[in-house]
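Sequence design from tokenized structure. All designs in this work follow the same two-part layout: the structure record, then the generated sequence. An example of the structure record is given first.
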């Protein structure tokens, strides 16, 4: 297994020899050492991506697509190994990790399909002696800054469309989870990735952003992470007018109307909320239930939540793994304490979980899946993402009130609601301010759909044909036609 940077087709350590240790969040055991790279490695990765660009962008789309498909195939071939690595560094249950590897591979195959159909247009001209053609061209060298919560899928979601469009890329994985990214890069090399087309540098986040934004050759940056960091990147990118895609925090509402199938709604909430222990940008953080079915819906939910099994991700049957680090679990502690102070009632969970393992001492980083009643606008969890296995609920009376509650934050990534009324489904889907709306659907993620937010959740879309828009410029060619 490689643990180095991938720069210009070679796996290399930092010239300084400095490394950082990757720890398993379930038991704090070291998993591997990766380079703590400096400015020199980042600059060499930009050089490599820049040198590779002319040839890669001129490579026929069908060949670029072929590489992405081979790469995806190797990921599926090695999905068990990659999932075990992901669970070791990220903590999520093995079944979820294997699901993520398949999800990541699907971004590569979807981008391959998009590459083969990416086209421009010929527009009717207003003049007899002129023709108008618009072609799509790759923007150039791109950089990706990826998060720890989906270490393979979020990288694939960026590198697939970038390479499919003919761009080259350098990526900085999150310092908590670099191994999944490096393992993916290794499979890219096996699939025939030309030198410099894709590079990985493990390094400090601030150093990476200062270096890429300081180099005019980097024309596009795609970032998944927090809103405050997104703002900083916008400021840094202003000087060189760098194109940005920002997939930032969400704060999803989940509405259950009185005409909903309550079992389906409860199942949808479990799927969307408790995936990755609630450490998902699109997971619901606020649950609003119509008053006439509030008690019944909460009862069904509580019964399902109480059954979720907490423990290390590599133990059979575990559904809720550890949180990524101490800061994450302290945030959950703070949100729960604050909610209790504001009068919330704990229906289940509400405290750290203490799973036991026969062969090792586990870290104090597990949180019991929690359902709270009495969500109030003044609570911290009504205003910011909890990013843990916690959901708090409040009743509402009317559709208008539910829409008002859903839209009561400046964020707008995902949103969900359950109803059997067809007209209501259309009205509410149109009225909610969010990039993604799940209507009777808790599992909205798929590589073919446009993924991204509005408001403080950022801008730009990943997935399907929209993804390639982010990595291409439209060039207008005006051709003069002389009369015979
Ligand atoms: C995210 O939470 O950032 C991504 C989740 C997904 O793609 O399903």
């Amino acid at each position: 297994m490689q643990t180095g940077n991938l720069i210009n087709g070679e796996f290399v350590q930092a010239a300084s020899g400095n490394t950082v240790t990757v720890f398993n969040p379930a038991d704090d055991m070291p998993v591997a050492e990766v380079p703590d790279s400096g400015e020199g490695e980042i600059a060499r990765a930009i050089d490599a991506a820049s040198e590779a660009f002319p040839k890669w962008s001129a490579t026929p789309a069908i060949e670029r697509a072929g590489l992405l498909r081979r790469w995806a195939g190797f990921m599926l071939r090695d999905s068990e190994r990659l999932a075990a690595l992901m669970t070791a560094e990220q903590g999520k249950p093995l079944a979820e990790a294997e699901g993520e590897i398949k999800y990541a591979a699907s971004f590569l195959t979807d981008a391959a399909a998009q590459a083969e159909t990416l086209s421009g247009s010929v527009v009717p001209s207003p003049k007899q002696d002129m023709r108008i053609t618009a072609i799509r061209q790759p923007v150039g060298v791109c950089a990706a800054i990826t998060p720890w919560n989906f270490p393979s899928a979020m990288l694939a979601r960026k590198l697939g469309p970038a390479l499919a469009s003919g761009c080259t890329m350098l990526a900085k994985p999150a310092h908590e989870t670099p191994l999944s990214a490096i393992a993916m890069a290794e499979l890219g090399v096996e699939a025939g990735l030309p030198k410099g087309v894709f590079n990985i540098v493990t390094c400090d986040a601030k150093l990476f952003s200062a270096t890429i934004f300081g180099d005019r050759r980097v024309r596009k940056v795609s970032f998944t992470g927090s809103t405050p960091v997104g703002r900083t990147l916008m400021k840094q990118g202003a000087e060189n007018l760098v194109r940005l895609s920002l997939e930032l925090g969400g704060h999803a509402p989940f509405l259950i109307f009185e005409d909903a199938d309550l079992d389906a709604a409860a199942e949808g909430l479990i799927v969307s909320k408790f995936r990755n222990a609630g450490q998902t940008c699109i997971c619901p953080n606020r649950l609003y239930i119509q008053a006439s079915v509030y008690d019944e819906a909460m009862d069904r939910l509580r019964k399902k939540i109480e059954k979720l099994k907490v423990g290390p991700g590599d133990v059979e049957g575990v559904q809720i793994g550890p949180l990524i680090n101490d800061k994450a679990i302290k945030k959950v502690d703070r949100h729960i304490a604050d909610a209790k102070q504001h009068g919330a009632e704990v229906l289940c969970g509400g405290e750290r979980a203490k799973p036991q393992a026969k062969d090792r001492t586990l870290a104090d980083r597990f949180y019991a899946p929690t359902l709270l009643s009495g969500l109030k606008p003044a609570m911290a969890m009504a205003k910011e993402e909890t990013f843990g296995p916690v959901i708090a609920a409040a009743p509402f009376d009317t559709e208008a009130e539910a829409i008002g509650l859903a839209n009561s934050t400046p964020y707008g990534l995902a949103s969900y609601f359950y109803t059997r009324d067809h007209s209501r489904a259309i009205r509410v889907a149109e009225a909610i301010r969010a990039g993604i709306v799940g209507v009777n659907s808790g599992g909205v993620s798929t590589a073919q759909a446009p993924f991204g937010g509005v408001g403080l959740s950022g801008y730009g879309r990943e997935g399907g044909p929209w993804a390639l828009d982010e990595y291409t410029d439209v060039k207008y060619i005006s051709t003069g036609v002389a009369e015979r």
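Residues 149-150, 153, 224, 280-282, 445 surround succinic acid (CB under 6 Å). We note this feature because it recurs in several other targets discussed in the main text.
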